[in-house]
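[step 3/7] fold_predict: job queued, chain A
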Amino acid sequence: MNFYAKRMKRLLPALLLVGTVTVISGMLFISPDGGFSLMSMRTCVSSFLGLSNIYLFLRSQDYFAADADLNLCTHTWSLGVEEQFYFLFPILVWLSYFLVVKKKSNGKSVLLLTLSVLSGLSLALYIYLSIKDTNAAFFLMPARFWQLGSGALVYLLIQKRSKEASSHQALFCGILLILLFALLSRKFPVLPSTLAVSSITALFIYLLPKAPNISKILASKPLVTIGLLSYSIYLWHWPVLAISRWTIGLTAMTAPFLLFATVLLSWLSYRYLETKVRYKNWSLTPAKQVIY
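[step 4/7] structure written:
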């Protein structure tokens, strides 16, 4: 319950704020013709429940289609996947530690095995659906479980690994490959690029603790600031871009203004909402915090 309370305080207040502002903006700036306004509203509302990925899947929305760029809340599909994973993950931890074994010292091993099996099955499902039903592979949590599960697996493997030093060259290559796929993502087929980026990222995180020089660079104040603002930036950037497509346009002339607006809105919501709510003790018990 403590895990659920912390995740909800972290994710929901900012989402509710951005979603509400986005819905109101959509009413003001999007023409009701063509159904885009209604689709944006429904996507935003479904995101409040962590279900926008399912809504977009049922709408047969292609994330890479041109009309997806006009939906103000298309980007919340990934938050839906994340929230559905967060609902399931504590149950897996609880089962591994308290139902399968009595000794907590064995719990990590059981959890490692459980996550490995489920992530392997999820990866197989993702590959299969990428061929048979690309929208299902893209939007649905069971086909994305392996990506989020890999983060938990990396953490567990770091706890178990030996003291060998990692290769700085491998880390630098990992950074370059991640940047390459990020810049050229639409030029690669979704399946191989997703597999490559997820694998490289997992390996990068696994090796990073043994590379103090690179860790210091990533711990620099500018990069940490971006990291702290990253959730707000994620929430705000897409509505700003989508509304600009409906109004002033997305051009080289408007790009600096849109970047400034995104950063400003992100900082304001982080400074005056996220940090206030996230660390506030709403109740003495996690269960009551979840209810609130």
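[step 5/7] annotate
Residues 2 and 286 are 5 Å apart (CA to CA).
The mean pLDDT is 85.
exit 0
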